[in-house]
Design goal:
It is a single chain. This protein has a single domain (32-101, 135-303, 346-451), classed as Outer membrane efflux proteins (OEP). Helices cover 62% and strands 10% of the residues. With 468 residues, it is an alpha+beta fold. The protein has helices spanning 2-23, 59-75, 77-98, 137-203, 209-243, 278-299, 344-410, 416-451, and strands spanning 103-114, 118-132, 304-315, 327-336. Helix 2 packs across helix 4 and helix 7 (344-410) runs antiparallel to helix 8. A hairpin with a 3-residue loop joins strand 1 and strand 2 (118-132). A 4-stranded antiparallel β-sheet has the order 1-2-3-4. The protein is elongated, with a radius of gyration of 37 Å. The protein contains 8 helices and 4 strands; from the N terminus they run αααββαααββαα.
Length: 468
């Protein structure tokens, strides 16, 4: 027995020595690093600095909106899909970790064989197998799976942040639609009153038929706009209900009005705040995992060491399986090294390296896209603020011109065409002001997404609904 043990240990030493010797012949490829663009010290587009009164999300609407956000996070189907993908990635990491653990299984089998006579055989015992991770490839596999799980979690965070932004943005789209409809209905009532006055004047011979037909045409046109706006409201309501995971029955109502003013963007937002963006974090995890896959595929080309063993009983009588006299055991150490595989392993390594190169480029592209999104939103913030000031002034002047034109028409100083033109300009100006309010809000939401969330703690006003 001592001789058997000595031979076994000698064989083990010989195998381990050969594995360690082969390890001196290889050089694991260096991990790829993304050529990330340098983060600027400050953004090209300066932040707004002038004080602005009011907040961009009215307090009376905050609880309603937060309730919808919580509902969407709980019920949105796209977020549920991403949640399931996170669970799959976590289970994959557990599977990868199990590859480096010993494998022990029990067996019970029986059979009958016949040559010159019939003979029964029964066996019961344990099988043991364990691949020793001499070169660290199993550890590379496990770490890569963990990083891929982390990437999946960041993708889930990105999807949730997108959902919050979509619900918030759709909320203000609905608010604008309600106010646009109210504006059209007000215009409808004014045209109805004008038409009644002109019809009475026409019957009395004071107004020409041209004025009557123009008034009727304008009233019919506004009626068509009411129908179109109501249809648009139903379409936008269905979009919101889809985001919330509801059946699209167009019963949801958004209460409130669009805010006229918003807080200014705080100055001094650091550019490296983008490192908190889920897509950038996910791209970094993806690259790190791809580098580990390269190392694993390279190490697969070298010998691997596996221990196998067996312990159990073997007998021709089923009742003798538990007898101590029938116990047998075995323990083996095997070294397997690829010799001829048609270039398969080398090609798999090349594929892993190409994948790593792709993820490195994707990381750089993700960072650049983030820079573009932030700069675009900061620039749009300034442009929209300036536009809002001019449009509000235009709406005020158009409203005054509208009132003056109708008074002069009643006094016979101008034609009805002038009245219609002044009313159209006043209506268009007020409608454009509502649109610019909503556009500023949508741009602010895009800025929050580009920055990966709220402004830094230096901001005293919470501008974006916090995630539940």
């Amino acid at each position: 027995m001592k001789y058997v043990h000595s031979c076994f240990y000698t064989a083990m030493v010989t195998i381990l020595s050969s594995v360690l010797l082969s390890a001196c012949w290889y050089q694991v490829p260096e991990p790829l690093e993304a050529q990330s663009p340098l983060f600027p010290e400050s953004w090209i587009n300066s932040h707004l600095a002038r004080p602005v009164s009011g907040i961009w999300l009215p307090l009376e609407n905050r609880e309603l909106l937060l309730g919808l956000i919580k509902e969407g996070i709980q019920n949105n189907s796209q977020l549920k899909i991403q949640t399931a993908r996170v669970e799959m990635a976590l289970q994959n990491s557990l599977i990868a970790g199990a590859d480096s653990a010993p494998d022990l299984s029990a067996f019970l089998k029986g059979g009958r064989q016949r040559s010159t006579r019939t003979q029964d055989s029964y066996a019961m015992g344990l099988d043991f197998s364990w691949e020793l991770d001499i070169l660290g490839k199993l550890d590379d596999r496990e770490q890569a799976a963990l990083l891929e799980a982390a990437m999946s979690i960041e993708n889930w965070r990105e999807k949730r942040l997108d959902l919050v932004a979509d619900i918030t943005g759709q909320w203000f789209v609905l608010l604008e639609n309600y106010q646009q409809l109210a504006l059209i209905q007000k215009r409808e009532q004014n045209l109805s009153n004008n038409l009644q006055i002109i019809e009475e004047g026409y019957k009395m011979g004071l107004n020409p038929s041209l004025d009557l037909h123009l008034a009727r045409a304008d009233f019919s046109a506004i009626e068509a706009k009411v129908i179109a706006r109501r249809q648009e409201m139903r379409t936008e309501t269905r979009k919101m209900e889809y985001l919330l995971g509801r059946y699209p029955e167009t019963e949801l109502l958004a209460a409130g009005t669009l805010p006229l003013k918003m807080t200014a963007i705080p100055s001094g937002i650091p550019a490296d705040i983008l490192t908190r963006r889920p897509d950038i974090l996910a791209a970094g995890h993806t690259l790190a995992a791809a580098n580990l896959r390269v190392a694993e595929s390279y190490k697969n080309r070298f010998p691997s060491l596996r221990l196998t063993g067996n312990y159990g009983t073997n007998s021709s009588e089923l009742g003798q399986l538990v007898s101590g006299e029938s116990v047998v055991w075995s323990l083996f150490a095997g070294l397997a090294a690829p010799i001829l595989d048609g270039g398969r392993l080398e090609a798999m390594q090349g594929r892993s390296m190409a994948r790593a190169s792709e993820t490195a480029a994707l990381f750089t592209d993700t960072v650049l896209i983030a820079f573009v999104e932030v700069e675009n939103s900061l620039e749009a913030e300034q442009r929209l603020t300036a536009q809002q000031d001019f449009l509000e002034q235009a709406a005020d002047d158009s409203s005054r011109a509208e009132n003056l034109a109708f008074e002069q028409y009643q006094n016979g100083l101008v034609s009805y065409v002038t009245v219609l033109e002044s009313e159209r300009r006043a209506f268009d100006a007020q409608s454009t002001v509502l649109a610019i309010y909503n556009e500023r809000i949508q741009n602010r939401i895009r800025l929050f997404l580009a920055l990966g969330g709220d402004f830094p703690p230096m901001s005293t006003e919470p501008p974006f609904p916090h995630l539940p």
